[in-house]
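Exercise 3.2. Students should predict the tertiary structure of the chain below and write it as structure tokens, then compare their answer with the key that follows.

Predict this chain's 3D structure.
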Amino acid sequence: MNFDIIKRDIIIGERQAALYFIDGFMKDAVFEKLMEFLYKITAKELSGIKTMDEFSKSYMPYTEADSSADIETVVTMLLSGPAILLIDGIGDALIIDSRTYPVRGIEEPQKDRSVRGSKDGFVEALVMNTALIRRRIRDPRLRMEYHQIGESSKVDVVISFIDGKADERVLRKLRECINKAKISGISMTQQALNEALVPSSFWNPLPKTKFSERPDFASACLLEGKVIVVMDNSPGVMILPVSFVDFFKEVDDYYFPPVTGSYVRIIRVLSSLLTVYLMPLVLYLYNNVNMMPQWLHFIIPKEDLSIPIFVQFLILEFVVDALRLASVNTPDALSNSIGIIGGLILSEFAITAGWFVPQTILFSAFVAIASFSQPSFEISYATKFLRIIMLILVELIGIYGILIGTVVGITVMLTSKTISGRNYLYPIFPFNFKDFCKIFVRTKIKNEH
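Answer key:
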């Protein structure tokens, strides 16, 4: 027996009735009024009622109520939160959606912060998230298409789009993937839903979906013709379709004047390029000091090397990730201290012990800081893997390692497709000059006429 599934036996119009609901999902004030109304129904009023649909139209004052004769549907709805009303002599059931979920406040998400933007964010309740979008887009063409996915969890999923702007191929593909998805449960993570909707190779780290916890950014994407997938129990929404360049566009670009937004976007692009190429280039120059310009000789280590530069770079790659994980898993009051103090103590000890030289720690720290200019963790790790491949190739074959690494990265992107079928590297390939300029330049927001 489940202690949280409550059965309330009542009498409605001199007939036996039962009300089933999940403890914790009930709005007490609403049901107190509802029960008071149901008790007033007389036997004469109920005598002509043959179906729950008739009962709902005549005697159910609550707005969100629907009848169903399918047992599986009724059970699924009960486990989702709505209450179920059964009345003797009426074959089907009445589903009363008066549920309320435990939910936190809609404060600004910690990761997707904005200097001048709104300070609200998505939460774990599906209806509240769709309401945050509706609040910003009062267009009658805005659609909220409901689905369920997962064989055991049966998670509620909504496909949101603006009719006439969204790509019909993307919508058709999403519906097909949801209908065909065979997932035992996805209550733990968005990634299971992401992999079900946008399948990709195990060895390809490039994200095909962009996540956001900001309703203003999600609404802006809808107005641009994107499709938003909202998932219950998740504070983030999926934005589709996206290509590589979409990860360089962020909400702050649109809260500043075009020239400032363009400057911020260019800095973001340059920082991302530096995170890929800086350490492989430095390693090549260290391995070929005679190729190093005279003005760069100050970066040559003065100390004797106990560990080769290549090995130092690789170790520091893993140490930075270890510090990041330690900071994430540390309570908020200590997380910043752990990251800063841990990095200072470890680096100071490593230099004093002669394991590392200050230059390698400096370059690794710069790359780690520059990687935070890219808010997408998926893209950050994709560039990290490419950087590690380049470091290995540079150590083995010199400058050709950077060229081969670049070719490998471009080839992976060229062979990847978005859910719409467009190349992942668009607008670089196929080249579109107007869209290519938008990578670096934030154009003025146009008014629709």
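Discussion points: The first helix runs from residue 28 to 39. The first strand starts at residue 5 and ends at 12.
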